[in-house]
Design brief:
This protein has seven helices and no strands. It has one domain. The protein is an all-alpha fold.
Length: 184
């Protein structure tokens, strides 16, 4: 799949800076802090568009993209969230005009993370995603609901069964644990 490419985003890989010695925990904490700060600003003015800290989210995105490409599910989910919420958009007009493209890009990243077992990515793709990956996932959800009628779709056990259906891997207690500070 070709990713939606923003001219403001330069992948570190393209600059020859790809090295996975990045402190992922520090990076995810910085993302979580920036996302929380943005969320608080949105809550303070719920009736209007709130401009995110675009420079910070661009920086975070630039550091996360190579890690997401390398398969880090936490970075993949964070990348998707940055795209979905338009956290690299300078204006509401840009966000509105690019919304579908942003959500399509987010859907790609959520799909990548969901395939590898990120439970929030599964949920985000189902509730916010677009495109064929979401459609495939909706069909799987219907199959799991039919085969496990007592499980609520929001229950971790349901996501575990869904994950098994997607990946063929067994549910484990470790699967549902997400690193502290990672916003979903």
């Amino acid at each position: 799949m070709q990713h939606f490419n923003f001219k403001i985003v330069v992948r570190a890989r393209d600059l020859g800076l790809l090295h996975l010695s990045t402190n992922v925990e520090r990076l995810l904490k910085a993302y979580s802090d920036a996302f929380l700060k943005y969320g608080m600003a949105c809550r303070a003015a719920p009736d209007q568009w709130t401009k995110p800290d675009v420079k910070e989210f661009e920086r975070l995105l630039g550091e996360m993209l190579p890690l997401g490409d390398a398969g880090n599910i936490h970075c993949q989910n964070a990348i998707a969230t940055i795209f979905c919420w338009g956290l690299i958009m300078e204006s509401e007009e840009d966000f509105v005009s690019l919304r579908k493209n942003l959500v399509m890009e987010a859907s790609y990243w959520w799909s990548e993370a969901a395939r590898r077992g990120h439970p929030y990515a599964l949920d985000n793709l189902l509730n916010n995603g677009l495109g064929i990956e979401k459609t495939k996932l909706e069909k799987m959800v219907a199959e799991v609901q039919k085969s496990h009628p007592k499980l609520k779709p929001s229950a971790p056990e349901f996501l575990g069964v869904l994950y098994h259906k997607i990946s063929g891997k067994a549910f484990s207690k470790e699967w549902a644990k997400i690193s502290p500070g990672v916003a979903g």
